[in-house]
Structure formats: structure tokens, C-alpha cells
Design a protein that fits this description.
Length: about 190
């Protein structure tokens, strides 16, 4: 009889120790839970566009502030690092503020997935040894991925129109009425 009691006591002890190792799985279902998790990754993001470093000797830095899981605003700064580049690029400095709308099937991380944005490009440059300034509103689409540590990877394609460009005045100077916005960026949320 004592053996049976000892055996039952040991089984109860081992079964209670075995349950300590189980993990709790939490499924995010509500918008409040999504917002809390997104906020835990951070609402701010800094990023570097590596496409500009590869194509031009240029540097593009970006900042984005998340409003909620569905929208964000931010801006990028483009610096042309080489005025004598073999690639014909007249812009020396560009400021591009934007507003984004995220459309993601999985909202676990918030402000990620497919997005559409509206932007305004404010460009300062030199063409035919003359300084110029131009404004180009436009639209872009892209996709952003984020991991659980808050690192991001983003691709972007957009088009816009230079409002101050006059084709008769600036004929054959390397500039055009249209602008293209491309990007491949890596960033970090904080």
C-alpha cells in the first residue's frame, strides 16, 4: 500500500513539474491588442536607402512616425555626394515628406505590408551651371516587412511631376517634367 502511495505522490510531482514548461500562446484579435503590440516595437523608425548608395554616390536617410496600424507620415533627405558622377543626376539636395496608408492582411505588427503614399518632393540642384528649385507632388506604392526585433526592410516605387519645370526653358539639360521615386531601405523601429 505504501508503494502505491509513493508512486502516486511521485506521479503528481512529475506532472506538476512537466506543466511548468508549457508556453502560453496569445492570439491577437482586437485593434487594441494590435496597437499595443505595434507600440511595443516603437512608433518611430529611421532608415537608410541602399539603392541610392549603389546607383549614385548619394545618401538617402529617412524617418517615419507611425500614427496607428493603418497609417504613418515621414520624410526622406537625399544628399548627392558627387557632383562629377558618371550618372547624370542634377539634384544636389532633396527633401521628400510623405503620408502613407498601409493595407496588410496580417496586422500583427502594425504599419507594415503593402502601402500607398502621397509625397511632395522639394529638390535643389544645378543644371547648366545654374541653380534650380523644383516641387514635385506624386504617388508611390511599396511594401514593408518588419521582424519582432523592430528591423524593417522596404521597397518603393513612385512617380511625380515637377511643377516648376519649363521644357522650353530647360530643353536638353538632363532634367524632365516627370520624376521617379525608387527605394530599397533598411531601418529600425524605436
Amino acid at each position: 500500500m505504501k508503494n502505491i502511495l509513493y508512486t502516486l505522490a511521485l506521479l503528481i510531482c512529475f506532472s506538476s513539474f512537466g506543466q511548468d514548461g508549457t508556453n502560453e500562446v496569445v492570439v491577437i484579435k482586437s485593434d487594441n491588442q494590435i496597437e499595443e503590440f505595434s507600440n511595443s516595437l516603437g512608433l518611430n523608425e529611421i532608415k537608410i536607402d541602399f539603392l541610392d548608395l549603389l546607383i549614385f554616390p548619394a545618401l538617402t536617410l529617412g524617418y517615419e512616425k507611425t500614427n496607428d496600424s493603418y497609417s504613418a507620415f515621414g520624410g526622406t533627405l537625399f544628399f548627392n555626394l558627387d557632383s562629377n558622377s558618371t550618372v547624370d543626376w542634377n539634384d544636389k539636395f532633396v527633401l521628400t515628406p510623405y503620408y502613407r496608408f498601409y493595407f496588410s492582411k496580417s496586422k500583427d505588427f502594425g504599419s507594415k505590408g503593402f502601402f500607398a503614399e502621397v509625397f511632395s518632393k522639394f529638390a535643389f540642384g544645378e543644371s547648366r551651371s545654374e541653380d534650380y528649385f523644383d516641387i514635385a507632388p506624386g504617388i508611390a506604392v511599396g511594401n514593408k516587412w518588419i521582424n519582432r526585433r523592430g528591423f524593417t526592410f522596404e521597397t518603393l516605387f513612385g512617380v511625380g511631376r515637377n511643377l516648376l519645370y519649363n521644357s522650353e526653358e530647360y530643353n536638353d539639360d538632363g532634367r524632365s517634367v516627370g520624376v521617379v521615386r525608387l527605394g530599397i531601405a533598411i531601418g529600425k523601429r524605436f
